[in-house]
Structures are given as structure tokens and as C-alpha cells.
Specification:
Organism: Bifidobacterium longum subsp. infantis
Number of domains: 2
Shape: globular
Oligomer: single chain
CATH class of the largest domain: Alpha Beta
Bound molecules: adenosine-5'-diphosphate
GO molecular function, one term: ATP binding
Helix content: 25-40%
Protein name: ABC-type quaternary amine transporter
CATH architecture of the largest domain: 3-Layer(aba) Sandwich
CATH topology of the largest domain: Rossmann fold
InterPro entries: AAA+_ATPase (IPR003593), ABC_SmlMolc_Importer (IPR050093), ABC_transporter-like_ATP-bd (IPR003439), ABC_transporter-like_CS (IPR017871), P-loop_NTPase (IPR027417)
Keywords: ATP-binding, Nucleotide-binding, Transport
Length: about 375
């Protein structure tokens, strides 16, 4: 478990690249000692920029970055990466091919002029920790992808860094190896009490590993929270859409009813969750995949024909685009007008091309005229 001592912090950190691209915009984040933080977000959202700002590979334009109470970057201070004492692992296991496994792992200790006996002891310790005891004399070319990545992890932790930074470190590995390395990595960081920042495009990985998840979009931090927060209480429609595959509807709440026009449907506001008070006025409705049920199109049509008064308000008609089997739930993607709805269902899956009704059972209402600003 992490304690609540803030270990690394970003205060109002913005970064503009020389070509004018905004990498980060006023990012604020406090990381607790021993905490495992996952950075998620679409490609180009600023995940690597945030990590590199902490690592010292880029210098923020404004704001300050601190590690263990020491400012490592602000408008006047810049501590170079080699003096920040951090361990890093990248997606491509960048081992030096002309050095043995042992010499690769030993490298950071040579940089810090650690005595030879201590170096040997620590290399053995790190290799044992990643399950590669006895691999010291091997050549990197003799290793599998998973083994190479273990060596890269051993090299990152051998000098007992203040933090471990992982940039898509597991992304090049195939399942089930990836899953097992994921578990081992988490076990190791807990054992060592290592504060970890992990960039991943894989939501499942972030949910499985992280104490807290930071979601970025266009350089803005959209939400910082536990996996449960992001899954069940997305802070805004962008998080709901990216992280939870929610379908977004722009519409209006009036007299207890939310209405939207394309595609046309309405739903009582008592079925909507909102942060403050009763849903009222214009806003965005986010519907999570679990909040929809599929109704066979023929049944829906028959019922409405027999009973024209039947309440079909929260039903939409659409065509199945994709229907995928999953271990717990099946995912069905339905096209209704211009909208693509992603539904989770159990039981029989409809066929691709089939017409179906989609019932919206509940949703999250975000008041406001339009989607949050994404500059
Ligand atoms: P992510 O890791 O989420 O994919 P990045 O942090 O790499 O995103 O990039 C954030 C934004 O900054 C993107 O628009 C990207 O194109 C831009 N960017 C990243 N590195 C550079 C660079 N060296 N020069 C100019 N723009 C960059």
C-alpha cells in the first residue's frame, strides 16, 4: 500500500515544443511515495511528454517539477537526467548488444563509480529479482523478447532509483508473457516500495496495475483517480468516451426528460446520474456499454404496432456493425444514424448487419453547452 507522502509533483507544468505544438498544458499531479501511477490517453495526448518532463529529457516551458522535495525543473532550475536518479524502461529493450547481460545491468553502477564487489552483488540481486539468476554471462542476442525486457528492468532498478519510469515497457510483448511480466512487475514494485510512473495505451493494463490512473487528452489532465473512479465516475464526457467506451449524446434536459434529436430519443432524468442536483438545461449524456440492452428489432416493432402507446422513448433503432465474443461479456457495436453505440451484452450475440433496438437504461449527464475545450 502507498502512504500519503507526496513524492513527486508537477505544479502547473506546461510544455510547448519548438515547433509550437503543446505537449502539456498546466498539468498538476502529486505522486505519493510507493504509488503506482498509470498514464493513459489517446496517442499524442502528452503521456510521454509528462514522463519525459520528470525524467529530464525535456524542460517545461512554465511550472515546476519536484522529486522528494527537491525542485528538478522550473523556469530557472534544470537538473539533468543523470542527476535525477531515476530508472527507466522503454518499449524497445535497448540493451547494448556488445555487452553481456551482466555488464548491461552493471552499467548504471559503473556510472556512479560503485565499488566492484558491491556492483557484482547488486547485479546478482537485480537479475534474481527479475527471474534471470545465472544469466549474467549470456549475450543479449541469445535472449527472448521477454527476457530482454527483464534485463532492461533489472538495469533500471539496479542502482536503487528514486522512481521507476516505464514508457510502454510491456507493449512489445505478446500475451500471455505480457500478463505474467505485468504481475511480476507489480509484485516487485510493491516489494521494493518503488514509486512508479507507467505510460500505457492499454486501459486493461492501467486498471490491473495502477493505484491511480491519470488520463490525458491534448496535453490536459482530464482526471486523476482510482481505476474504479475512472470506470464508474468518469470526470467528463471525454474520459467517459475514451476510457469507458461511452456513447455521447448532446441534448437538453427539460421537465424531467432528457431529449436528443439525432438519433431521436428521450429518457427520464431520474435515470441519469449527475454531479450536482437534478439534470437541467443543455448537456452531454454519456451512456456506458453496460447501461444498454439489445432488443430484437422484430419484437420491438411488433410491440409498438400492437400497442402504439408503449414507451419506446429510450429505444433506438440501429444496425449491428460488429459483434465480438468476450470472456465475460460480448461487445456489440451498433450504428444508429451517425452515432456508433458500443454495448456489452451477455447471452446470444446478434449477427453483423442485423437490425436491433437498443434500450438505454441509464446514463451520466454532464451539464454544459458543449464538450470540454480541447485546446
Ligand atoms: P503520447 O505519449 O500521449 O502519444 P506525446 O507526449 O508523445 O503523446 O506527444 C504530445 C504532443 O506533442 C503530440 O501532439 C506530439 O505530436 C507532440 N510532440 C511530441 N514530441 C514532440 C517533439 N519533439 N517536437 C514537436 N512535437 C512533439
Amino acid at each position: 500500500m502507498s502512504n500519503s507522502h507526496p513524492y513527486a509533483s508537477f505544479q502547473d507544468v506546461s510544455l510547448e515544443y519548438p515547433n509550437g505544438t503543446i505537449g502539456l498544458s498546466k498539468a498538476n499531479l502529486s505522486i505519493n511515495e510507493g504509488e503506482f501511477i498509470a498514464l493513459v490517453g489517446p496517442s499524442g495526448s502528452g503521456k510521454t511528454t509528462l514522463l519525459n518532463t520528470l525524467a529530464g529529457f525535456v524542460h517545461p516551458t512554465t511550472g515546476s517539477v519536484s522529486i522528494n522535495g527537491q525542485v528538478v525543473a522550473d523556469e530557472s532550475i534544470f537538473v539533468p537526467p543523470e542527476h535525477r536518479h531515476l530508472g527507466m524502461v522503454f518499449q524497445q529493450h535497448a540493451l547494448w548488444p556488445h555487452m553481456s547481460v551482466g555488464r548491461n545491468v552493471e552499467y548504471p553502477l559503473k556510472q556512479t563509480k560503485t565499488p566492484q564487489d558491491e556492483r557484482r552483488r547488486r547485479v546478482n540481486w537485480a537479475l534474481k529479482l527479475v527471474g534471470l539468476e545465472g544469466f549474467s554471462d549470456r549475450n543479449p542476442s541469445e535472449l527472448s523478447g521477454g527476457q530482454s525486457q527483464r534485463v532492461a528492468i533489472a538495469r533500471a532498478i539496479v542502482a536503487q532509483p528514486r522512481m521507476l519510469l516505464l514508457d510502454e515497457a510491456l507493449s512489445a510483448l505478446d500475451e500471455p508473457l505480457r500478463e505474467s511480466l505485468r504481475l511480476e512487475l507489480r509484485h516487485m514494485t510493491i516489494d521494493l516500495g518503488l514509486t512508479t510512473l507507467h505510460v500505457t495505451h492499454d486501459r486493461g493494463e492501467a486498471i490491473a496495475l495502477a493505484d491511480r490512473i491519470v488520463m490525458l487528452d491534448h496535453g490536459h489532465i482530464r482526471q486523476i483517480g482510482t481505476p474504479d473512479d475512472l470506470l464508474n465516475r468518469p470526470a467528463d464526457p471525454i474520459v467517459a468516451s475514451f476510457f469507458d467506451d461511452a456513447t455521447l449524446f448532446e441534448g437538453q434536459c427539460d421537465n424531467g426528460i432528457f431529449r436528443t434529436h439525432k438519433p431521436s430519443f428521450h429518457i427520464p432524468t431520474r435515470l441519469l446520474q449527475t454531479e450536482d442536483g437534478m439534470p437541467e438545461g443543455p448537456g452531454t449524456l454519456a451512456v456506458l456499454p453496460d447501461a444498454m440492452t439489445l432488443v430484437e428489432d422484430s419484437i420491438w416493432r411488433e410491440n409498438t404496432a400492437v400497442s402504439p402507446d408503449m414507451d419506446t422513448s429510450s429505444l433506438l433503432s440501429g444496425t449491428v456493425m460488429t459483434s465480438l465474443y468476450g470472456p465475460q461479456v460480448n461487445t456489440v457495436v451498433v450504428k444508429a444514424d451517425d452515432l456508433t453505440l458500443r454495448c456489452h451484452i451477455t447471452g446470444a450475440r446478434p449477427r453483423q448487419g442485423e437490425h436491433v433496438g437498443v434500450r438505454i437504461n441509464k446514463g451520466i449527464f454532464y451539464p454544459g453547452n458543449k464538450l470540454p475545450r480541447r485546446t
